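INFO batch 0412 | record 1 of 1 | parsing
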Amino acid sequence: MGQEHAAHLPGSKGVLRGDRQRRPRPDRAAAGARERRRQRRGRRARADRARAARADGAAHESLNVPVVQVEGLARRYGEREALSDVSLRLQSGQTLVVFGPNGAGKTTLLRVLATLLRPHAGSVEVLGAPLPQQAWSVRGRIGLLGHEPLLYRELTARENLRFHARLHRVKLSRVDELLERLGLDGRADEPLRTLSRGMVQRAAVARAVLHEPELLLLDEPRANLDPAAIELVEPLIGPAPGRTRVICSHDPHGGISEADQVLGLRAGCVALLRERARVSVEEIAGLYR
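INFO prediction complete | emitting tokens
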């Protein structure tokens, strides 16, 4: 059989002769690039669907379920009752400002809402979840700024925020963004113990808003801040459309100005609970007498 015929034989004979027409191999690099593009498109589509689902869920929740609903709350420390028969309701996008003298129960209320303390009586729901039964489901959706910064003193501000970013699965670029916005980028790599109280407070603000929580719980959030620092933190924790906040304050004028509802506590009991328009500075001042 001649060479010209072997090329047309099926099977191995033609292959062994080396004359069979070979199919061109695909460009592996190009195929890999196409596959990576396909995967990126898939990830973006999944992320878009997830964002849309969260937005739809948030809209549905805001229309139907209060962000905070408390009925007959009581909380004791031994024999002392820190909160007694406290009831309130807060809708999405509203701000509740809580006034009262030291020991009135303001911080205790915030810690209950933050899932850090269990109620001893009554019912508490935060973001639609009953506490403490489903506390695990809402902790990552709450931002707490209390008297303690909840940061490690031996770590730098950047290291602290990166630690919390990993806990909340937040991109590290968010850390750099907040450090810059709060004017901490120049001192971000120094141990926290070397920073002033005002700088530590700014780092604590960054921690509280790092994961863009649905509910902010703020206990005297502007403490230790000078006027320039207050201007820096205000866009992150101040009034904004859709931002839901519970704030403890001793500033009647400032607190009332940013409130939708005002709660006054005295000795753990509700002394007043009204819309802002129906509360006067004099009434708030009376809580402290």
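INFO post-check: The first helix runs from residue 3 to 6.
INFO record closed
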